[in-house]
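Database export, one record per block. Field names are fixed; values are copied verbatim from the stored entry.
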Amino acid sequence: MIANLSKINLSAILMVVVVLAATTSHYVAAWGCYDKQIHDEIIACEPYLVGKTDEPPTETCCEQVRGLSQKASITEGHNQFAYCIAIRDCCFNFGFRKDRSDQLPKLCGYTPSIPITPGLDCAK
């Protein structure tokens, strides 16, 4: 009976490991952004948004945030709320400066459907 119980526990642990391995590719926690898609679209702006450089955002950064804004504008309902939370969390975890985030739409020439800024209120 104890041997059977050990097999069940081992099977349960193995199943948890498999599930975690399958879902971890979606997350990029090491960079402070838990949604890989948003991470990939926002990472080019990181030097500007955290204040590592006094240079304006790069064209790559601007292209990425325009694409992110476009995707956010066509996302609806509960999915838009989840998208907003993911963007907000990435901004907060990266340590983006609000003053830089506020300047980004003007510098990159776009109107944000969801602002890329820490402290974003996703309930609105």
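Remark 1: The radius of gyration is 19 Å.
Remark 2: Confidence is low (pLDDT under 50) at residues 12-31.
End of record.
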